[in-house]
Amino acid sequence: MHPASSIILFTTLSGLGYGLAMMLGLGLLDPAHMATKVAHVLALALISAGLLSSTAHLGNPQRAWRALSQWRSSWLSREGVMAIATFVPLTWSAWLAVIEGRYFWLPGLLGAAMSLVTVFCTAMIYASLKSVQAWHTRLTPACYLLFAIAGGLVLTVFLAACSGALTPPLAVGAVVALAAAWTVKVKWRARLQEAGPLSTPESATGLGGIGRVRLFERPHMTENYLTREMGFRVGRKHAAKLWKIAVALGAVLPCVLLLVLGMWGLGGVAGASLAALALLAFVTGLLAERWLFFAEARHAVMNYYGG
Amino acid sequence: MTSLPSLPTPKKLGLVIDLDTCVGCHACVVNCKEWNTGGYGAALSDQDPYGATVSGAWLNRVHSFEMIPDGEVVGEAGEARIVHFPKSCLHCEAAPCVTVCPTGASYKRADDGIVLVEEDMCIGCGLCAWACPYGAREMDLAAGVMKKCTLCIDRIYNETLEEVDRTPACVRTCPANARHFGDLGDPDSEVSKLVAERGGIDLMPEQGTLPVNKYLPPRQRQPLSASAGLLEEYMLKEDAGDATGFFGWLDKMLDRI
Amino acid sequence: MKPRERVALSRPVADEVRKTTCYMCACRCGINVHIKDGKIRYIEGNRDHPVNKGVLCAKGSAGIMQHYAPARLRAPLKRVGPRGSGQFQEISWEEALSTATQWLGAVRADDPKKLAFFTGRDQSQSLTGFWAQQFGTPNYAAHGGFCSVNMAAAGIMTIGGAFWEFGAPDWERTKLFVMFGVAEDHDSNPIKMGIAKLKKRGARFVSVNPIRTGYSAVADNWIGIRPGTDGLLILSVVHELLKARRIDVDYLVRYTNASWLVIDAPGTAEHGLFARDGEGRALIHETVTEQVVPFGSKGARAALSGRVRLDDGRFAVPSFQLLAEKYLDDKYAPEAIAAETGVSSQVIRGLAAEIARVAFEEEIFIEQPWTDMNGQRHQGYVGRPVSFHAMRGLSAHSNGFQTTRALHMLQVLIGAVDCPGGFRFEPPYPKPLSAHPTPHGKAEHFGSNTPLAGPHLGFPRGPEDLLIDEDGQPARIDKAFSWDAPIAAHGMMHMVVANAHAGDPYPIDVLFMYMANMAWNSSMNTAGTIRMLEDKDEATGEYRIPRIIYSDAYASEMVAYADLVLPDTTYLERHDCISLLDRPISEPDAVQDAIRWPVLEPDRDVRPFQTVLLDIGARLNLPGFSDGHGRALYKDYADYIVRHERRPGIGPLAGFRGSNGDREGRGAANRRQLQRYIENGSFFSAHIPMEAQFFKHANQAYQDFAVRMGFFDTPQPVTFQLYQEVLQKFRLSAEGLREPLAPETHRERILQAFDPLPDWYRPLGEALVDQREYPCHALTQRPAAMYHSWGSMNAWLRQIHTRNPLYVPGPICDELGLKDGDWAWVRSHHGSIKVEVARMEAVNASTLWTWNAIGKRAGAWALDKDSPEARKGFLLNHLIAELLPPREDGMRLSNSDPVTGQAAWYDLRVRIEKADSSLVSDPQFPPLAQPEAEPRPDELRYGQEWAQ
Question: 4Fe-4S ferredoxin-type domain: from which residue to which, for each copy (chain B) (predicted)?
């Protein structure tokens, strides 16, 4: 699948935003603190930026409102509905924190739960597509949810460090979430690499009875919408390298930094810097992970295009 | 609506494509384009039409595949072969492209099972194209809406056309008679009979899409070498021999005229 | 709200339907052009049309994009930059026509042969040929010489008709159909429709072709033969059929020259010729009375073997004895030829067995009394339901004439010509050799301001009819009908530029061409041809080919090399006639012709070429075009089509003649004729009565019908010429036994190629190169979705073939380590090209191939100069020389069939080497500047204004 930057940015940013919103909703940060106020605004900003970037790839964005109508059957519609609905408790919570400097459990917990559901809906857009075998697994929503939680925690650690309120359990919690997310992701990727293809040129053409089937000529010589959208193919070596970078930056480095932070309870500028570094590493790693999420996924249609 | 109609639909209109006859001439491809670029919905646009990266929206395309029999290639039976493979929307009964649509633009008609896009409602998110394992949907980049085979809905019900022409453009134009249109829900229809006789198949049955369109696989072939023995029989009967023998036979034949 | 209710189901398609004839290839299907708001809404096949019966191919369906292509020329052009720069200035038609008239008038007065007028994909040859004849130049032909003249010449000289588009398999009845060397070609839709019929009936379809695509892909059996060896395969089948005694002796005696006596007098000028009586009638040996009597004598029982003494004391044998002795030789046994052809002996036997079985065990009988030319009444038609079709795979080799003759001989031996289930003639064929003219163009045939004494093209009956001077030098610029190519019945357009450049046999002043892309895909040695067109005489500074006039509708590569460009219309903007005088669209059951008419008015300053030619003819005061006082006889081509008469009552169109429009074939001109055609769907069809439908070559009812329709003035039955005496006359000349004597330089070649019985020899281009150095063949195939170079300016078709890879057999890929997308050098004795490769298994193991004419020169056809067609597309033409490699004596002859001069495109031998990866194919040429063309849009949304 083509790793469109708009969609990679959308899932990464909105995942981080919803993760942060969950942590805020759970009241993990002191509502009175300036950093928490910033955090609320940041969460909303990340979610909004993500949503906006997701509309960038629409052919007719002016009709985007129509996407709210089919929540009974379409995960994309559900995601849209949930995203908008989730703004209500999140904005409420943000108002309370920013203006009144207080935390109220009702919008907080509601916001956290709805954020979780929204991320789940996003993941299910992908997981529901049987045509993309790599995505069509429960592990996909598990990854999205765990990465959102882990991202939210890393962001929370950073904000806590900025406000000097970092506690070791928070840092350890972030490490645990990171470990969980990456463990599931490793399983996800192992499945991708180990599973035989669901559909093959033989099943796609029904001609396997005659012999091994290979594409002889594409229908048209130049690229078309389908091959641009779904024909992206990342080199095996390139993917392996990128995966290592994703794991190193997204998992190993933040875990080490967070453990350092948690164990030694560094505060002040040093702590905030370490936390910032962990966050930066994680986001970079996550972008690589998301890029691979698309780039390594093979669409069934490529059986017709020799991909 | 985005939800699928209750199945089965009373009619299952679709195509039967004969892979034994298709010579890969692209007639259906181009005729489809010209009919539909002025017909249902937005024109099928072409980007950079006279430039280096020419590309356009098409609703039907012909692929070519090569089959290489397993093992060593020996003689006729083991030889590699080419099959030309036209492909457009299969109007699946369990159309995944319909259920993923967030706006309701994609729908399957309850009466005849045709899968359509209501272009005024389409936001061009492209998810339906992702959901389709067959590559039947292509975004029109100029209009920003998803295009797909309509089974020429503006022909098959078009009362301004002669009855005989109320058939999809690809079927009408196919010089090799490799495309057939009809109701696959009616076991007595010509297309259903063809499917039954020729062992018509579904593409990617494992995707669970229940395609309506069927493909007729290439017929079994009898190698020429299997007939070689026949010639030897003729020769034995006629006491082959050399030219002298031949002219003797010839004289006998002339006597019989 | 239910969206489905918003679908408008019954919108009228358009405002109006105009029925005309397609011209997206040579198939000439009927089309319905739907016009909406003055634009084309849709083009579909015409269901009533006899050629396509409603279907339409990819090309025809892309007519919209052809019609509106930005590559259309807009106005007459005068070259202002150097040749090949593409720099032009638009001029008025008056200036263009007076310039052309001035150039041509001077030539006509001075020395008419200094005009070479050659037309390419011309469908108006009866006009262009007539014009050239009235002009008086001997140098006229259409493009048949580089197209498929071997098909036509071998067919006419053997059975009086040809495959090509002059006959067709009996699709309704045939049970075994064998096709040789046909990819997309003439009759493209009828062949597809025919194959579908065979498939439906369960008839067997065998394709002999090195490449298994298209038709071959759906064949029941594919014989992936080595290129150039089809003749051997056919003769081996003949060998097996003779051995198995599976031949139709009755048919041979009745309809062929099998019984004709061949003089056996070695060393004399008549050796190998037919014994004839005083009236020139061929003699046979009558075995009951032991007399030698003329062929056709009532009640005669002809011998097919046995030596007989003629009245003059010489000995003779029936030609069939020579035939049988020749092919019974074990050198034609399947085992003996398997290695050369690459076809296993069991497959050859199987093919022969199936032909024999179907012909003789699945015989058809149609009860329909008919009378043959001897007056004998038959109860019905006996059908041998084996049919054949062949095209370029046979004809584009330098042994193609003989190979095609071999195939016709095979058809005749099993009695399967013009019978039910066999190959059937399409009127006005069959037509015996004797009904064709001999060629004209010798010095005594033309002169200053005088028409040529007769038609340019025809069939020499012997060396005495060659167009040569006393020294044996060619009279024509293309050297057609010279010792180089004695039976060059369609001329040799592929030699014109090279010969004119070399001044061999003489220089010319004006080269006038129509629709022939000689500066690109229509020439062998393209780069060399470009140099020749650009080359100047150092002494005078003049171009070696001083003036080039060119007419085309589109900015093709050739336009850039013209000095004066006459812009043609598109096929939807002009009148045309698909005439029985030229290349009609008849079916075996019906006589047919058709027209085109302007279904749209031109929106540019362009004129139909035929009308322009009439105008120039009138300005030049040519007889037949002007009344002698400079007044034009015809207003335009439409007027000519209606009023021109070739013989009294015979005009370009056969339908709706006579003042009331009720006459068919013969009749007075009818002013309303074109209107009647338009009302009838732009075609005319006259059914052949059932008693005349088969055995047309010997069927009295058919012959009478042919006379009635005006094909001939007297019946012209055909006796199939298995043994071809004309060829033997050339051999006698080459043996020094018969005047005029062939020059020493050509004797060996003539002795090899002019066997009076079908023969196989190694293609000349192959025989002269080292086969270890060049172990592979390289071929092109015409794709179904692109007609020659005509299609890259078409925004839809070019998406299907935007560039062309070289397809390489899997084993060669493995040996060289080539993968899809790698690059390779392909080298011949003449040149090298660097191309992108793709792997293929379903192909003859020594054959590389690509799609024909996809590669374009940068800047041509109004395409972006970085288009894939120019950057990655390529031509094999760069590897093919117009001359053969030098012989031992240093002589270089044309790379053509030595009999007919057919360009031997497929003789090419090459080697392939892996190359470094590349972004562009090699060779590349400087981009052409584009004539002021229409603006090139960045996006097309054709039909958006009609969107619902």
Answer: 13-43, 80-111, 113-142
- Asked whether the predicted pLDDT for residue C2 surpasses 70, the reply is no
- For chain A, give every domain's residue range: 5-58+67-210+223-305
Class of domain A5-58+67-210+223-305: mainly alpha
How many Cβ atoms from other residues are within 10 Å of residue C357's Cβ? 18
Q: How far is CA A262 from CA A23, A174, C172, C272, C523, in A?
A: 18, 10, 88, 110, 80
- Closest-CA distance, A140 to chain C, in angstroms, reads 34
Q: Token match 């000095």: residue?
A: C563
CB A133 within 8 A of CB A195: yes
SS3 B83: strand
Residue C821's Cβ-count burial label (10 Å; 0-12, 13-18, 19+) is exposed
Distance from CA of A170 to the nearest CA of B (A): 38
Adjacent-strand bridge partners of C263:
C316
Q: How many CB atoms lie within 10 A of CB C652?
A: 26
For C647-664, what is each residue's pLDDT tens digit?
999 999 999 999 999 999
Query: Do residue C802 and residue A222 have CB atoms under 8 angstroms apart?
Result: yes
Structure tokens at A213: 């089937």
CA–CA dist C371, C705 (Å, integer): 13
**d(CA C163, nearest CA chain B) in Å:** 20
Q: Three-class SS of residue B228?
A: helix
Report residue C501 CA to chain centroid gap.
26
User: How many beta-carbon pairs under 8 angstroms link A with B?
Assistant: 202
What are the tokens at C332? 């034609």
ipTM metric: 0.96
Q: How many CB pairs under 8 A join A and C?
A: 14
**Is A216's Cβ below 8 Å from some Cβ in C?**
yes
Q: DSSP secondary-structure letter at C927? A: P
Binary contact (C8, B154; C-beta < 8 A): yes
Residue A220 in contact with partner chain C when CB distance is under 8 A: yes
Chain B residue whose CA is closest to C176: B224
pLDDT digits (tens, 9 = 90+) for A192-229: 999 899 999 999 999 999 999 999 999 999 999 999 99
Q: Would the CA dihedral through B121, B124, B128, B134 be positive or negative?
A: positive
Q: What is the pLDDT at residue B99? A: 95
Using alpha carbons only, how large is chain C's radius of gyration in Å?
A: 27
- What residues does C260 pair with on adjacent strands? C284
Of C924, C114, C119, nearest to C526 (Cα)?
A: C924
Tell me how far apart the alpha carbons of residues C840 and A141 are, in angstroms, rounded to a whole number: 43
Token output for A184: 């599931």
Q: Which of B28, B179, B254 to mutate to test the interface with C (most CBs of C within 10 A)?
A: B254
Q: Is B176 on the interface with A (CB under 8 A)?
A: no
Judge whether B80 and A212 are in contact, CB under 8 Å: no
What pLDDT does residue B241 have? 60
Nearest to B131 by CA among A77, A132, A295, A205: A132
List all residues of chain C from 247 to 286 with a beta carbon under 8 Å from chain B. Answer: 249-250, 253
Task: Report the pLDDT value the prediction gives residue A65, as an integer from 0 to 100.
Answer: 92
Closest residue of chain C to B118, computed from CA coordinates: C3
For an interface test with C, the pick among A66, A217, A218 (most C C-beta atoms closer than 10 Å) comes out as: A217
Q: What are phi and psi of B164, to 5 degrees?
A: -65, -25
* Closest approach of B145 to chain A, Cα-based (Å): 6
DSSP annotation of A97 reads I
* CA B147 to mean position of chain CA atoms: 19
pTM of the model: 0.96
* pLDDT tens sequence across A3-29: 988 889 889 999 999 999 999 999 998
Q: Determine, for residues B3 and A198 on separate chains, whether the beta-carbon distance falls below 8 Å.
A: no
* Structure tokens belonging to residue C830: 């003449």
Q: B12 near B213, Cβ under 8 Å?
A: no
